[in-house]
Amino acid sequence: MGDGGDMTALQRLLDGLASAPACLVTVESIQGSAPREPGAWMAVFGAAQGPVIGTIGGGHLEWQSIADAREWLAAAPAGGAPDTRLVRHALGPSLGQCCGGVVQVRLERITAAQAPALRERLAPRLTPVALFGGGHVGHALARVLAPLPFALHWIDSRDGIFPPQAAPGTVCEHSEPVQGAVPTLAAGSLVLVMSFSHAEDLDVVAACLQRRRARGDLPFIGMIGSRTKWATFRRRLAERGFTEAELAGVTCPIGVPGIVGKAPEVIAVAVAAQLLQQVAGSAAGG
User: Fold this and answer.
1) Residue 1 has pLDDT above 50, yes or no
2) Where do the domains of the chain lie?
3) Is 107 helix (H, G, I), strand (E, B) or coil?
4) φ and ψ of 275, to 5 deg
5) Nearest to residue 128, comparing CAs of 73, 210, 182, 186?
6) How far does the chain reach from its first CA to its final CA, in angstroms?
7) pLDDT class for 236, splitting at 50, 70, 90?
């Protein structure tokens, strides 16, 4: 699967192919600094006014690649077999971009017949996130996470707490007791705890620590709250038999440091940034 797009852009591409072929432009490789990573893609349809879906980073590199794609499409015979070619761009001297790196892009003529393979190939890798709590911050966070490379499993013990239409790909679950959902979480889930109740928060964190002890497959457990809240929880969790090493694996407060606002949307952005750091750290370590 790819890393360079999102599910909405991919669906727009597949819908567009139903009526016309396109040129898929993919970042094949990079050397040095570049606007986007390998796997980033955009799709170019038709002539000068045809739509462009996705992005390989903007700027002159993207402008030139769109022109190349349209030329490639115009030169391809109608109904001809799909074909590809590679184009090398030195960002400094050839395109006047100050990145200074070298980007190699692949131009590929694609048609509706390739839609199933493209869906599998271009679908972004999604990291599972388990969000316990449907309050103001939970709703803000669900909105922020929707376009990011996460698969959201959203859990609350209350009825009627989720929006009528959650973002595509979001799984909403009513669980009573709320910690009963912990054993069913996808392996590798990044867990966020922010329920309406401190008692629920405590039970969810305890269940996550128990699962981590047994299976070791929850790489991040984070809880909203102050350092004072965590000090109280730490003592109560220790009384339940969790060790200092286990408790050191819980992040509280959550969110990247230095963002001090407490509005739900501000907290949501800070937490989403922290999750992205977790994903990047796992990728670098793996």
Assistant:
1) no
2) 4-122, 127-284
3) strand
4) -65, -40
5) 186
6) 17
7) very high
Check residues 79 and 15 and name the one with the higher pLDDT: 15
Angle, in degrees to the nearest 10, between helices 264-285 and 136-145: 50
Angstrom distance (rounded) from CA 21 to CA 111: 5
Quick check: 230 and 253 in contact, CB under 8 A?
Answer: yes
Alpha helices, DSSP H only, in the chain?
7-17, 59-75, 115-122, 136-145, 198-215, 227-239, 244-247, 264-285
Nearest to 198 by CA among 235, 223, 172: 223
Cα torsion angle, 279, 281, 284, 286, sign = negative
The secondary structure of residue 172, as a DSSP letter, is E
Cα(73)–Cα(20) distance, integer angstroms: 11
Cα Rg of the chain (Å, integer) = 23
Task: List pLDDT tens digits, range 39-88.
Answer: 999 999 986 678 999 999 888 899 999 999 998 888 866 555 558 899 99
Least confidently predicted of 166-170, 250-254, 255-259: 166-170
Note the pLDDT tens digit of each residue in 214-227: 999 999 999 999 99
The architecture that CATH gives domain 127-284 is: 3-Layer(aba) Sandwich (3.40)
Residue with tokens 């867990």: 191
pLDDT of 123 reads 87
| CA distance linking residue 30 with residue 2, whole number of Å | 16
Per the CB < 8 A criterion, the answer to whether 153 and 131 are in contact is yes
Tokens representing residue 93 in the block: 């001297």
Residue 69 corresponds to which tokens in the numbers above?
């794609």
